[in-house]
Amino acid sequence: MNDCIFCKIVAGEIPCRKLYEDEDVLAFHDIHPVAPVHFMLIPKAHVASLAECDPSHRDVLGKLLLLAPKLAREQGLGDGFRTVINTGRGGGQEVFHLHVHVIGGGGPRPL
Ligand code: 5GP
Ligand code: ZN
Predict the structure, then answer these.
(1) Which of 8, 22, 43, 105 could pair with 14 in a Cys bridge, judged by C-beta atoms 3.0 to 4.6 Å apart?
(2) 54 pairs with which residues across the strands?
(3) Which residue segment(s) compose the domain that 33 sits in?
(4) Ligand approaching nearest to the C-alpha of 97
(5) Catalytic machinery residues
(6) Is the CB of 94 within 6 Å of ligand 1?
(7) What is the distance in A from the centroid of ligand 2 to the CA of 79?
(8) Sign for the pseudo-dihedral over CA of 23, 26, 27, 29
């Protein structure tokens, strides 16, 4: 967990382009955006992935999902956006600290 890059971002040890922060969650722009707008929402408390979540994470999971459209709108994505949560190696996850990608502004895209 000490090696977790997103925990280091939460701790301020690695810089990020922050969009939003409160006591439970942090939102920042992805360092390698795949679309004109690409940011992610993370819980501040480390949890590796959606697969490691349990009922104690219910509130923070709800908070992440409710913030997604609010922050997306603020980033100019009032027309819509994609949310992606990669889970586990088989799901293409590369950073093992739960994160919700919010992606948009690149025109329509099939799933
Ligand atoms: P995953 O494949 O785990 O869902 O996505 C990890 C994402 O984290 C990638 O889109 C990658 O660009 C992003 N990322 C990795 N390291 C950093 C970093 O140090 N800062 C920021 N802002 N994003 C990062
Ligand atoms: Zn972490």
Answers:
(1) 8
(2) none
(3) 19-38+54-93+101-111
(4) 2
(5) 99
(6) yes
(7) 32
(8) positive
Q: Could you give the number of structural domains in the chain? A: 1
CA–CA distances in Å: residue 36 to residues 53, 77, 79: 30, 10, 14
* Contacts of residue 66, Cβ cutoff 8 Å, sequence gap at least 6: none
> Is residue 87 within 6 Å of ligand 1 at its C-beta?
no
Residue 59 within a domain: yes
Q: Does any domain span residue 24?
A: yes
Q: 32 vs 36, 72, 101, 103, CA distance in Å?
A: 11, 18, 12, 12
CATH number at residue 63: 3.30.428.10
Q: Dump pLDDT digits (tens) for 25-60.
A: 999 999 999 999 999 999 999 999 999 999 999 999
The model's pTM is 0.95
Question: Ligand 1 within 6 A of 51 CB?
Answer: no
Radius of gyration (C-alpha) of the chain in whole angstroms: 13
